[in-house]
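Ticket #4471: complex job returned nothing on first submit. Input attached below:
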Amino acid sequence: MSSIFTSSLGKKLLMSLAGIFLIIFLLVHMGINLLIVIFDDPMVYNKAAHIMSTNILIKIFEIILFGGFLLHMIYALILQIQNWVARPNRYNKANYSNTSFFSKFMIHTALITLVFLVIHMMDFYLKAKFGHAAEVIVDGKAYHDFASEIIDKFKMLPFVIFYIAAFVFLGFHLVHGFQSAFKTLGMDHKKYTPVVQFLAIIYSTIIVGGFSFIPVYIYFL
Amino acid sequence: MNLKLKIWRQKDPNTRGKFVNYRLRDISADSSFLEMLDVLNEELISKGEEPVVYDHDCREGICGACGLYINGRPHGPDSLITVCQLHMRKFKDGDTIVIEPWRARAFPIIRDLMVNRNAFDALIQEGGYVSVNTGSAPDANAILVKKEHADLSMDAAACIGCGACVAACKNASAMLFVGAKISQLALLPQGKIESNRRVMDMVAKMDELGFGNCTNTGACEAECPKGITLTNIARLNREYYKATF
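Support reply: We reran it on our side without changes. The output follows.
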């Protein structure tokens, strides 16, 4: 049982479970973000954000989420370093084997996503946590006015481009990560694996499209 | 055919290797790749130079001894064959062919294009067998085996242990090889008895030998001369979880 934390297959299992957890989280996150464009009243989004930052269950979930992120990143880094060490001398001629394209760049797309995540945390999450965001008072109750802040930011083209670019790279990461997690869990089937591969493309497209729609919508309207 | 060869030359495991260029003239398009190398070696010997060292044995595509990384692909530009079954008609007159050894920490270079694949033997020694009394041949139907399982086991048993999976994998992972050996035995009643111990021992050994980790990229499956599929890696994962939990 302890080998699950140390063996190659065990580390891959933990990494894929954390990955699936993050895949589900992304859908929830996207749903909440879309409130800002679905409803004309920005307070719908602000109230949802208020619940997300104050509800005790969400706070517990937040700890699990950070744990999942850390687990996924730490094990990915360990496995990647082992992979580099496993081939100390590279081939002179690049590999031409017929393989899934995005799988070759998982560490690169992961690093780009990590950079975006750090900026996102510093720019948004920490402000929400430590109360530096502007406030709006509704029915005598104070809420952080994230909606206005988001709208202000996405009226600036560089923010829009950076945001969409980050999600496109995340999408590349997800196309392989989604279906690879199933294989790592031991799920491979002649009939169902192509379905999972198709779902991976659909899911990644929804995530990239859903998140990117918000800045595009705000910028042009 | 006239060819330009760029071949990795390395005196011994501890000496730094380098690429050396050779020119070959009038090579028959119908000769095999190894025959082409034989022609080169004859020329080198006649000039008093050291011939290029490479692994080969049966030259029938079944022993798994040969293995060269040719123009960025293990066993060269054809599918489902070992390099001994590769023919020069797959190349064009005037081509430059880059020939390298398998590159992996677990497969150290012995000399030139020959690598030490003892790591695969060590993996087999950890559990790639069934412990049974070898008496007289048992009755064919004494232990019933599902046709589907027998077929899948036979497919996995087609692995010849050439190491192309490790050579092709961007992580130098041996999981297709181990997956094939685990599948071959775990699918049959005779192999099921030791399946838990086998998978734990083989995975531990695989990690100890310094192979990389599978990222489900699929290069191994694409380059395997015997068509071993990624399904075997998925089964390796299942067997490992079954033995662990």
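Chain A has a mean pLDDT of 91. Closing as resolved unless it happens again.
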